[in-house]
Structure formats: C-alpha cells, structure tokens
Amino acid sequence: MEEDRGEAIVLDISPEINNTPAVMMRVPRRIRERLLSDCSNKKTVSSVQDIEDKLLHAHLRRQQFYHNVSRKARAKPRSPSRSSDEELGQRIEARLLAAEQKRLEILAKAQMRLAKLDELRQAAKTSVEIRSERERVKLGTQVESRVQKAEANRMKILKASHQKRACAKERTSQSMMRRMARESKYKERVRASINQKRVAAEKKRLGLLEAEKKKARARVQQVRHVANSVSNQREIERSKMRDKLEDKLQRAKRYRSEFLRQRRRQRDSISLYCDMMQEDADLLSRKLSRCWRCFVRQKRTTLDLAKAYDGLKINESLPFEQLAMLLESLNTLKTVKSLLDRLEIRLEASKNVTTVSQPSILDNIDHLLKRVATPRRKATPSTLRSRKGKKVSSVRNVAGTSVKMSRYPVRVVLSAFMILGHPDAVFNGQGDQEAALNNAAKGFVRELKLLINVIQEGPVQVSGGESKHRTLRSQLDLFDKAWCSFLNSFVIWKVKDARLLEDDLVRAACQLELSMIQKCKLTPEGVDTMLTHDKKAIQMQVTQDQELLTEKVRHLSGVAGVERMESALLETRTKYFQAKEDGSPMANQLAHFFSPSPASSPVQSVSSSSSRSKDSIGVEGSNRVNRSLLKDDTPPSSGPSRVSNGTVDEVSNQNELMVNEFLHDGNLNFPGGSTVKDEEDNLKRRIKETMERAFWDNVMESMKLEKPDYSCISNLMKEVSDELCQMVPDSWKVEITETIDLDILSQLLNSGTLDIDYLGKMLEFALATLRKLSAPANDRENESTHRDLLKELHRLCEAEDESGNFRAVAIVKGIRFILEQIQELKREIGIGRIAIMKPFLQGPAGFDYLTKAFEKRYGPPTQAYESLPVTRRWISTLLSSKEEWEEHNNTLSALNVVERSSMGISLKTGGSFLSPVNTTSKSTVMDTAGQLSECKGERVDLAVRLGLLKLVNQVAGLTPEVLPETFQLNLFRVRDIQAEIQNIIVVTTSLLIWRQMLAKSESETESMAKKLLELLDGKEGAGLTEIIETTMSEEDGEKKKMMRGLLGKSLGEGNTVYERVTSCIYKAARGALLAGNGENGKRMVETEMKKVGGGGGLKERVLETARALGVVACVSVRVHGPWLTQLMPQH
C-alpha cells in the first residue's frame, strides 16, 4: 500500500527523448525563429563550437527546470519505512543513470548530425558562390551586348527622325512659300476690289452729302428769308405804332398845356393849383406804373434779359458740336438779340445823358457793320409767285425805306465764343490777323461776361493794374470799346477770307472750263457740230456749275468779283488755244497750273510756276539737285532765268553722284566719302565763311559811321523777303509783301530816320514765319533762341547812344540771324526732299537714271567701241576669266567634299527653296541681310568682278586716265578699296615676320593685328617705322633693325613672301567676291588666310572689302551691261 501511495506521490519525469526519426528531424518553431533571427542579425553561419555552447547551455537550463519541477512535486516524508526508501532510491538512481546514458547518446547523435549539417552547408555555400559568380559574369556580358545594340538602334532611330524632320521641314517651307504667294495674290485682288468699292461708296456718299448740304442750305436760306421778312414787318408795325403814340403824346401835351392855361386864368388860388398838381401827379404815377408793367410784361427788364442769357450757358469751353448747335438755335438767337438790343439802347441813353464837363458820343462803326451785314438774296420767280400780294408790297416798302442796322449783330457776337473756344475749326491758317482776332475775341468775351455780372449783381471791384470800381455805365463803355476792336479785327479777317474764297471759286471755274474744252474738243469759236449726247451733257453741267459759282462770287464780291471771274475764264481759254496753236506743251500743263492750292488764283499759279523755275538755278547746290531729281522741268519764261551749259552739266554730275551713292550704300557724302573731296569741301566752306564774315563786318562798319548808309538794310530786308517768298506757299506771299513793305522801308531809310518799332515788327514777323516753316520738333528750341535774340536786340536798342549806331547794329544783327536761319531751313528742306527720294532711287529708277545719264554722255551701246577706249583695253586683258572661274569652282567643290566627309552622312532633301528667292529679287544689289549675291558664271558679271579685283590689286594708285569709263563715278571708292587691300597685305606680312621672330600665341597675334589695322586706318602717313614701333618693344634694338630689314625686303615686288601673301589675299578676295559673303565665301577666305596666318580681324576685313567691291561690280553690270556686252569678245 505504501508502494502504491509512493508511486502515486512521486512524479517521475523521464528525461529520455524519443529517438524516432520524425521527432529528430522536427525543429521547434521558437528555436527556428531564434536561429533565423540570429543568423539574419549576424549575417554569418554559426560554427560547431557555437552550436555546442548553445546546447550545453540549454541542457543546464533543462536540468534546472527538472530540478525545480521535481522539488515542487515531492511529497512530505511521512516517516516511511527504511526498506521502501532504499528501493525507491535505487530505482531513482537507476533511472537517473539510464537518463544520463540516454542524454549522452542523444548528445553524440546531435553532434554527429550538426557536423554533417555543417559540411553540407559549407559545400552548398561553395557551390552557390561559384554558380552566382558564373551567372553574374554571364549577365554582365548579356547586359553589355544589349546596351550596345540599344545604342546602335537609338542612333539609327535618331538619324531617321532627323531625316524625316528635315524632309518635313523642307516640304512645309515650300508649301508655306506657295501658300504665301497664293495668299498675297488673293489679298492683292481683295484689296483692289475693296479699294474700288470704297472709292465708289465714297463718291456716292459725297454726292448724297452734297445733296443734303444743298437742301439744308436752301431750307436755312428760306427760313432766314421768312424770318427777315417777318422781323421787317414787325419793325414797320412798331415804327407805325411808335409814330401814333408820339402823335398822341404831342396832342396830349398840347391839350394839357391849353387846359392848364385855362385853369390858371380861371383859378388864381395857390391851394387849388397845388391840388390840381397833386391830382396830375397821381394820374401820371398811375400811368407810369401801368406803362412799366406793360414794359416788363412785353419787353422785360435788362436784368431779366441778362438772366435769360445766363441761363443759356454759352461758354467757349463747350465742345464744338454742342456750341455750334447752341449758337444755331432760334431760342439762343432771339434771347441774345433781345439782350444786345437792350444794351444798345442803354448805351445810347448813357451817351445822350451828357454833362458839361465831359460830353461823349458813340463811335461810328457803320462802315464795319455794312461789311458783316448779310446781303439780301435775289428772289426767284417761283418764290415771288408763291407770295401774297400784300406781303410783296410790304417787302417792297421795306426795301424802299432805310432800316437802321443793329450795333451788335447777334451772329457776329456769338462767333466770338466759337473763335475763342475752337480757333482750329474757324481759321484756315495761323497768321497775324488770326492772332489779332483771337486776342480781340478774348477781350470782348471777357468784357461781356463782366457786363452780365454787373447787371446781375451791381457795381463790382476789378483788380487790375489798380483797383477800379465798375458801374453799369463804365462797363458799357468798356464793352463797346472791346466790341469795336473785335468788330474791326473780324471785318479784316472776313475780307481776307472772302478774297481767298473768291480765288478758290475762280480757280474752280477755270478748271471746269479747261476740262470742258479738253473733253468736248471745242474750237476757239466755242462751237462744235460733232458734239455727242455725252459731250452736250458735260457742257450743260459745266455751264450750270459755272452759273452757281458766279452766283456765289456775286454774293461774296458783287459785280467786281463777277467781272474778275469772267476775265480769268477768258484768259484761260485764250492761253489754252494759243498754246495749242503754237504746239507748245503749255496746253498740257495748264491743268497743273490750275490745280487747287490754298488761296492761289490762276494767275498766281502761273507766276508761282515761273518762280519755281527760277529757284531751280539758285546758289545752293543741294537745291539744284533736289529740283532736278524731282523732275522740275518747267520751261523758263525769260532769258535771265535760263542757265548755262556748265551749270546744267554740274547739276547732272551731282545728280549722278547722289544716285550712285544711294545705290551703293545710301550715304550722302560725295563722292564715295573720299578724303580728297572732303578736304576740297572744307576749303570751300572755309573760304565761304571768311567771305561772309568780311561782308557782315563791312556792313557793321558802315553802320558805325557818322553818316551811316541805310541802303544796305533795305537790300538785306529785300533779300529776306525774297527768300521767304521762295519757301512759303502762294497764300502767304501776300501777307509777307504787305508786312515787309520795301517801298515804305526805302522811303523811311532814304529820309535818314531809323524806325526801330517798324523794323522790329518786320523782324518779329520774319521769325514767326520761320517758326511756322520749321519742323514741329524744333519749336521749343526755335522759340527760346528767338526769344533770346529779341532780348539781346532790345538791350542793344535801349543802350545809351547818342548817335544811334547801336540800334542800327541791332537791326543788322537780327537780319543776319534771320538769313542764317533761312539758309539752315533750306538745308533741312533739301535733306528732307533727298530722304523722300531715297527709296525710289535705290530701286530700278536709280539704275535707269544712271543708264540714261551714261548713254547721254558716251552715246548708245552700239558706239561703245569708239566712245569707251579705256574700258575696251581693260576688257581685252580679261581673257583668263574662264580659267579663274574653273579654278574657283574646283576649290569650292574640294571644300564642300572635305566638309561633307567631316560631317559624315549628309541629310539630302528634295531641294532648296532659297535658290529661287535669291534670283528673283533684282531691284537691289544687296538682299535684306546685307549678303552679296553669288556669281553664276555669266560672262559680263564674271569679267567685271575679276577685272575690278585685278585693278584694285595693282600697286600703283588708280587715276582717272587708267580707270575705265564705267567706274569714273566710283573713282574714290575704288581707291579706298585699293588702299584697304594694301593695308591688309602690309599687316599680314608684318604679322608673319613678327610671329617668326617672337613666336607669339594666337591671341597675341589677334591683338597685334588690331593695333596695326588701327594704326594704318588712323594715320595716313604711317610707314615702316611706325609699324616696327607698334610691334616691337623699346629695348629690342637689334630685333627692330632685323625686322625693319626683313619687312622692307618682304614688301618689295618680286619677293617670295610678298608674292605668297598677295596671292593668298587675292584668292581669298576672289573667293568672297565670286561666292558671296555667305558661308562658302567665308570658308574660302578662311582657307586662304590660314596659309599666311591671317586672324579673325583680317578675315573680316577681306570679307568687307570683297563685299564693297562686289557692290561696285554688280551696280556696274546693271547700269553698263549693254555697253560691256558690246565690248566683250564674241569667241
């Protein structure tokens, strides 16, 4: 029983491990995770020693665990018997021994298994490393081969895409060119049709507008006529009523006086007389109040009229349309007329109330009012028939009686606001009369506004030079004075404007007459039996238009104007038929003479044309050139206006030089910007300036004598007047001759008196005219300069001088300044005309002009063999042109082959669209980018280019005797090109020797080349000494001597270095000259200049020189092509 209880109490935990293969091969999850984590953390494989250490440590922990478990499970001894304890101990010991033996076996098996696993692991690791290395090598080889294949494929794809893109671009560009051509043609057709429709619409619009204007004028005239008749009728009725009232008042006065006499005789009592007077006073006061109320109700007071005028808000600051509508309103005209009539009555009343100390009367301005009064139009028969008999009789009665003119015409008064607010819309010009009218209008409007203010608010204080108290009477006087001044200026301006309008109408009638004669082909007798229906309609329409113009002239100037118009028409017909009978070209030029110009009559037009022909032979050369370029071929009218053959040849030469300069580079320096010609011009300029100073010094000295000679002032003012009349339009000449009246000036100066004020006004007028003629950009500068001049002249005139010489000197100084300003203005006008002609002369017109001038000088091309001997000898020396052209082509082909081989496979397209563009433009020598055209191998073009290159490569300087006739205009230009080529030769040779002696780098060579070029360009007489001083330092004395000897020997003819340098530079210039200054020309220049060490600066010089030479050659081919073709050998 105790054994059973002991077995039940003691926990027997067997440490034996099942040694089955399934249990041995299974690794616990926890241990496997720890091993994997340790392996991943250490990143190395565990060794056998590590595994044994871990197993031992696990065994110790397991024994400790067993011990703890067995200790907890052991029961308390309950005093067992001794025998059971011994058996139990033996049994436990036997089990422990068995367990220990089992553990040792398991440990041995585990060690053996771990050793085998380690061997397997090492073998697997080695095999994996070998296999990974082998795969890495294999993958590297595959990747490298794939990269190479991908690169090759990418290059093929890129090349194919480039080719496709180039082809697409080429096709796109060609299609765009074709599309642009089609669109440009379509736009031109559309633009032409639009212009035609626009012109037709404009004609139709002008016709409708003219018809509407005529209808509106007719309606306005009709309304005005009715208004005038109504106002006249009312005036007659008022006058009759006034007469009746006056008769009644006179009778009432007589009755009253008679009644008073009777009452005085009957009643002698004073009291009765006083009562009677009181009753009469009451009666009169009642009558007076009744009349005043009637007056206020019917005619209104002055204050009410002023308030009504103020309510119109008439102001010069209003816009033009609004102010014009306001001034044309009937309400405005009625209100303003009422106010002005009341002011006239008040003014007359104030003048009638005179005092003994200060009597006053009104200024008589009837002669001015007649000028501004609207003349009565002649009534038409239809108008007369439409009127009633009573109305006609009343109008006749009014015409028979004289109606008093209003002192203040309402429309003239209102025009002051328009003049002051919108002078540009009112005036046709800006003369002294317009300025005076503007100032008068300003003063009149100011006084009118102040008068309205005085009427509304009473007397006011006006602060001017001194404080003044303005009452209604004083302000009325000032208002009337301002009105008289404004009316005077207005009449003067209106008379001038009417005169100009009359000239325009007469000119229009003459144009109609001349056009009718030319269209209908009338005879001097005025009849033609072969007139068609259209010609008869034209003649009828011209007759009607002339009648309308005659009516307008009669309305403006009366019978005298109609007579002047008829005489002008007769003179036009006479001159036309006389010129047609004589066969002179004047019959075709009369239309030009009668062309519309501002304020010039037909007679003035003819005179102006003759004056223009006289001006064409003036002193200024530029003016002669401008007029001849503008083809002012007006025949001179008299002998003195004709020019000599020498002057004509000089003008022709100057014209040719100018056109030639335009065709080459557009500069205005003559000829070709040469130094020799500039020196001649400077010498002439200095001589001219010296002579002018001497002349003015002589004039000044004559003014400082005791008895000064004032005749020179008259001559100088005559010169000023003549110069101004030559430059200004015909409409200004009358004002100039009126202001600078030479007859009055001569009389004043002959009398020995020097009127400073009169001469000062002349000078101010001349300065103002110059400011009008000058450019708007110079207005401020001219105003300041003229202001300073006037201040200086004023200071000289105010200086204390008993003899009065300072005043004469001041006048002469002012005249000198004006004449200098006139010459400067002439120069600016000449430059402006040249600038206008420049675009035309740079095109085909310039080439045609030079061709005609050359033919005029040397004859037609058929006579070239006799008339051009120097050119013939020069062309005969150009037999090797064909060989040089072949050599040039071979060189260019070799350069292209080298370039293609260096560039690899070239992308070929279907063609180039640039080639037709370069060949179609023949109007100018150079294209828009400044590129010289390439030589195509044409005989004349090739011969001229190579022959000109050989001319400029000669050592001896070119002279007019050696230079062909076709290059005479470009003598100085060709000389400059020759000098430039010689400079390039000298610089290239100097750089070769300098580099050979000092062995400098490329950059230093470039800088030295720039220094040498600047030396030769800046200093004309530069020689070997200056070149050596520039290239060598001061310490190298021996090297300087050596370089001097080498350079002098190398620059001599026949030297090897010289021949080599000149040959390379000749070939470089030939390449650029024949291939153009594009890419081909640059490559040829670079190839040849490399042989002699030429840097970038020298290459650019060669290209520029070749470009200038090519321009000369191309212009000569265009101009002298027919003559050169005749001189070229036929074989």
UniProtKB/TrEMBL annotation:
Any one Pfam family match given in the protein's UniProt record, by short name: Tcp11
Start-end of Polar residues biased regions: 635-648
InterPro entries in UniProt: Tcp11
Chain residue ranges for the region called Disordered: 67-88, 160-190, 592-648
Alphabetically ordered keywords of this record: Coiled coil
Comp. bias (Low complexity): 595-611
Biased composition (Basic residues): 67-79
Top-level taxonomic group: Eukaryota
Gene Ontology CC: nucleus; plasmodesma
Compositional bias segments (type: Basic and acidic residues): 180-190
Biological-process GO terms, alphabetical: signal transduction
Full protein name: T-complex protein 11
